[in-house]
Write a structure and sequence with these properties.
With 325 residues, this protein is an alpha/beta fold. The protein has ten helices and 13 strands. A seven-stranded parallel sheet has the order 3-2-1-4-5-6-11, sandwiched between helices. It has a two-stranded parallel sheet with strand order 7-10. It binds uridine-5'-diphosphate.
Length: 325
């Protein structure tokens, strides 16, 4: 298929593009390079520098025989979304409406959307399956939930076939080391730890060590970005076979604590990785773990590279090349 990848120069987008090309699809990357980078563009891709806030950029990109859109062009910092909700409303919600309307106008029927476990909010039970109540704790999660609602309506009214993929914590880098672009100003745990290991920042701040978890630090379900990327290809092919739209969790179904990741990073990098414990970050639940049975049933998908050593080793192979001596 001819696939337009919005945000394809970003961290997850670049991995998705690699998997699409490996599966024989033709890829057009559309990115405004606000957080993506040209380092993440690959031979064989077409690249359009454009913005989802600009409907004419989208119309031009879709005029070229595009059959499907994968949409990852969004802001994703939960903390920032609470301070600057207008930024998230504009880009994540209005921007996605622009995308859906451009698709409708161009007759593009298949849509794969980056949703998030942030739609659930504070867990009422674990593991979290797709039926879990949706009460986002932050505005970022609300934007994802809002878009899922729009997608159901565009399916009903316009025949859009979509897959909303609720990512748990994306982490790691391409196992073959083909992705080398670093995230700009990361706020997520593993890239922050990697920046400390590589001498790019002084210390990790551990946001609380008094949670009711294995060692007091927050537990999350980390899923390798290549596993995530493969799910996008499977979801697209599922829709193209004429199947119904779907909403699935993508997680490893395993929990890892902040300290478990930190220890693995120290061991695998051989670096000291200084860390201090600070106050809890508002809105952070103690523990999030996915139930991903639906993805297995509908897409035949399960995480294969999401063990802690693979997550850390593949990240370190990228960050160590940037080490400050
Ligand atoms: N975390 C931390 N220090 C950091 C970043 C994150 O201790 O600099 C913790 C955070 O409290 C949570 C886990 O690491 O328990 C994962 O946080 P992240 O921001 O990566 O993802 P989230 O689960 O919030 O989407």
């Amino acid at each position: 298929m001819k696939v337009l990848v919005l945000g394809g120069a970003g961290y997850i987008g670049s991995h998705v593009c690699l998997e699409l090309m490996e599966a024989g699809h033709s890829v057009c990357v559309f990115d405004n390079l606000s957080s993506g980078t040209r380092d993440n563009l690959f031979a064989g891709e077409k690249f359009i520098e454009g913005d989802i806030m600009n409907p004419s950029d989208l119309a031009a990109a879709m005029a070229d025989g595009i059959e499907a859109v994968i949409h990852m062009a969004a802001f994703k910092a939960a903390g920032e979304s609470m301070e600057a909700p207008e930024k998230y409303a504009r880009n994540n919600i209005s921007g996605t409406i622009n995308v859906l309307n451009a698709m409708t106008a161009a007759g593009v029927r298949y849509f794969v959307f980056s949703s998030s476990a942030a739609v659930y909010g504070e867990p009422e039970y674990l593991p979290i399956d797709e039926k879990h109540p949706k009460n986002p704790e932050n505005f970022y999660g609300y934007t994802k939930l809002e878009i899922e609602g729009l997608l159901a309506w565009y399916d009903k009214l316009k025949g859009l076939k979509y897959a909303a993929l609720r990512y748990f914590n994306a982490a790691g880098y391409d196992i073959q080391n083909r992705v080398t672009g670093l995230e700009k100003n990361p706020a997520n745990l593993l890239p922050v730890i990697m920046e400390v290991a590589a001498g790019m920042r002084s210390e990790l701040k551990i946001f609380g060590d008094d949670y009711d978890t294995v060692d007091g630090t927050g537990v999350r379900d980390y899923v390798h970005v290549t596993d995530l990327a493969k799910a996008h290809v499977s979801a697209l092919e599922h829709l193209a076979r004429g199947r119904d739209s779907l909403v699935v969790n993508l997680g490893s179904e395993e929990g890892l604590s902040v300290k478990q990741i930190l220890e693995a990073a120290r061991r695998l990098s051989g670096q000291a990785v200084p860390a201090v414990t600070v106050a809890r970050r508002p809105g952070d639940p103690a523990k999030l773990v996915a139930g991903s049975a639906r993805a297995k049933e509908l897409l035949g998908w399960q995480a294969e590279h999401s063990d802690v050593d693979t997550l850390v080793r593949t990240s370190w192979q990228v960050y160590k090349s940037r080490m400050k001596s």
